[in-house]
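RECORD TYPE: inverse folding
INPUT: structure tokens
STRUCTURE:
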């Protein structure tokens, strides 16, 4: 897991829904202030803490040869953190409450697209692991392989080229200039 939680001055793969979303909302404004380094997001839920603490154990339980953990790719103002990868595949870990069904959200799908784009590795699995109540209280529990699932995500070049990259280019320029993106630039 990446140690620095500072999300300012860079746009990450997990920010993809903000990049391609509506730039005229309070949520976007707050997110952009964080990117400009003017606001700190201190949100840390129990689920986030558990997910971070189990990430390496989940990856280790897969027994993947030549697995690299916490690889970081920087392309200008785009900073992508991969949970785990080999030269041919990315493994993006997502934990969830085992009592609920896991579904790949649009946000997770978009994040996966940008991870593949940045890394030039066009095979990606979302590795899901359902956490039980005790897992939130004890980070030393063994990984139960019956709760692991690998979900393949296909690369969508059209999404990257037509939706993501044009908006990323605008936001990168605005980030470097330290300004809010204009409505006119988004069109």
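DESIGNED SEQUENCE:
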């Amino acid at each position: 897991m990446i140690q620095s939680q500072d999300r300012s001055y860079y746009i990450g793969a997990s920010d993809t829904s903000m990049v391609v979303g509506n730039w005229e909302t309070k949520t976007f404004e707050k997110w952009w202030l964080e990117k400009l380094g003017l606001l700190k997001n201190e949100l840390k839920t129990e689920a986030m803490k558990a997910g971070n603490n189990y990430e390496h154990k989940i990856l280790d339980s897969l027994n993947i040869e030549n697995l690299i953990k916490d690889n970081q790719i920087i392309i200008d103002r785009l900073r992508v953190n991969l949970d785990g990868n080999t030269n041919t595949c990315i493994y993006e870990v997502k934990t969830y409450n085992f009592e609920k069904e896991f579904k790949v959200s649009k946000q997770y799908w978009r994040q996966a697209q940008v991870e593949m784009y940045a890394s030039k590795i066009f095979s990606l699995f979302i590795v899901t692991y359902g956490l039980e109540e005790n897992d939130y209280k004890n980070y030393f529990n063994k990984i139960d392989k019956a709760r692991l699932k690998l979900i393949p995500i296909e690369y969508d070049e059209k999404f990257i080229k037509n939706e993501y990259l044009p908006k990323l280019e605008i936001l990168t320029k605005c980030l470097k200039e330290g300004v809010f993106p204009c409505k006119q630039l988004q069109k």
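NOTES: The chain has a mean pLDDT of 93.
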